[in-house]
Amino acid sequence: MHQQSVFTRQKSFFNRHGLLLGVLGLCAVLLFSTTGCVVQSWRRAEAVREAYVDVIGKEPTVEQLNFWVKQVEDGMPIEEVRKELYSSDEYYEQLVVTTFTDLYGHPPSEVVQKRLVDRLKSGAIKPNRLKARLMKTARYKNFAAHKQQTQSETRKARRAAKQAEAEKEKAAANP
After folding, report:
1. How far apart, in whole angstroms, are the C-alpha atoms of residue 92 and residue 102?
2. Cβ(65)–Cβ(53) under 8 Å?
3. pTM for the complete prediction?
4. DSSP 3-state assignment of 124?
5. pLDDT by residue for the chain (175 residues), tens digit each?
6. In angstroms, what CA-CA distances link 122 with 26, 72, 87, 94, 117?
């Protein structure tokens, strides 16, 4: 009878602890698989964020990031995401603003921006030719000529100021 009670106690101990170990094991499996999902999701989000920054030139909003991550989770390859981003309105808008600002020193008006974005979307202007097309316009040629004239005048004024300063120092040195 004593052996039976020891056996019963051992069985009871293992049942309780076996159940506990089983629950801990299940938790470990769930934690591992959840962590794996989190890591995979984080990697997808990071790949989407990098693609967005590379193409658009700025960080995506939370909504934009979530949208594209969902597309990737549903099977869209990251290269397809890039392709979609390159054909997005936001890409064209960013391209127009950046290119225009680089050339003119200020962003385009809303009307000019919309017209250029529409021409890019329709294929009338290729994205890699936008700068060249803008530089061929009469507006840019006038701007460039004015800018060159202003720079030339600025250089002349600086030279004259340096010369006057040198003469002033020379006069002060020879009383």
Report:
1. 15
2. no
3. 0.56
4. coil
5. 444 444 444 444 444 444 444 444 444 444 444 445 556 778 888 999 999 999 998 899 999 999 999 999 999 999 999 999 999 999 999 999 999 898 888 899 999 999 999 999 999 999 888 888 887 876 666 665 566 656 666 776 677 778 878 778 777 777 6
6. 56, 27, 11, 16, 9
